[in-house]
Design a protein that fits this description.
The chain is an alpha/beta fold and 321 residues long. The protein has helices spanning 16-21, 23-32, 47-52, 91-98, 127-137, 177-189, 203-213, 227-235, 246-254, 267-270, 297-300, 304-314, and strands spanning 7-11, 37-42, 58-61, 82-85, 104-106, 162-165, 194-197, 220-221, 239-243, 258-261, 278-281. It starts with 6 loop residues before the first strand and ends in a 7-residue tail after the last helix.
Amino acid sequence: MTGPRRRVLVLRALGLGDLLAGVPALRGLRRAFPGDHVVLALPPALREAALATGTVDDVLPAEAPGRGVPDLTHWPGPPPDLAVDLHGNGPASRDALAALRPRRLLAFAGSAHGPDPPPVWRADEHERRRWCRFLTAYGIPADPDDVRLPPPGTPSPAPGAVVVHPGAEAAARRWPAGRYAAVVRHLRTAGHRVVLTGGPREDALVTEVAERAGVPPWDLLPGGLPFPRLSALVAHAALLVSGDTGLAHLAVAHGTPSVTLFGPVPPRLWGPPPGGRHIALWWPGPPGDPHGTAPDPCLLRIDTAEVVVAARSLLPTPSPI
C-alpha cells in the first residue's frame, strides 16, 4: 500500500527560453520524485509549454513585473512537502517559497534543509549546467544535456520550411529588421520556403521584414502562435534562424537545425549543447545588458553574409521545380 503523493513546488517564473533551459533540472527532479505531484510556478502563458515538457504534473500561475519574484501565497492547500528555487540566487525567490512553510526547501541562497554552506552561484556558468549542479549538490542528479522534448502531437502549419523569427523580448537581442530581410531574400532566391513568426506584440516587425523581403502573406505567422502549433512549426522546420530567444531553445529541444545570433550574452552561457546541427554566431566583446533598449554592439557585428553562409550550410539544396 502506498502513501499519499507528496507535493513538490518548483519556482521558475521566467520566459520560454528560461523554461526550456531549466528542462534538464526539471527532468532530474521528475526522476527523483517519480510518484509525487510536481507543480511548476511560472507565468500562465507558459502553461502549455510547461506541461509539454513531460516533467511536471501541474502549474501554479505566477507572474511578476519584469524578471522579478512573484507572490506565491495563492498556493492551495497545505504547505508543499518540498519547494525548489530554480528562479534565482538571492533571498527574494527563496523567501517567496519559504513563506509557504515547506517541509524542505532547496535554494542557492541557502536554507535550513540543505548543505551548509549552500552551493556557490557562479556567474560564468552555462544556465543548464548551473541548475543541474545545484540539484546535484542536494543529492538529485541531473544531466545538463538532457534537453529534448517529446515530439509534438499537433501538425505543423508549414512543414519543411525555414522559420525566421526576427523578434526578441528586449531590443538588445534584436538584430535589425533590414538584415533579417536580406537573409530571407537570399534563402528564397536559393529556392527555400521561408515563413516568418513573431510574438504577440511583434506584428509590425514581422510585416516590415516580410515587405522588405517580398514574403507573401500566407507565409506570415504573426501574433504569437499557441504553443502546440509553435512547437510543431519548429519541430518540423528545415531550419530556424533567430536571435537568442525562446525559439532557439525550442529548436534545440526538437533537434531542429538552427542558426542563433548572440549579442549581449555569449553562447557559452546560454547556447546550445555541443554536437547537433546548431550554429551559434557571436563576436566577443564587453558584457552587455540582455534586457537593454538598443541592439547590443556585439550583435550588430554579425553581418548578413555570415548568417546566410551558416544557414545554407545546414540546408539541403532545394530540388528544382
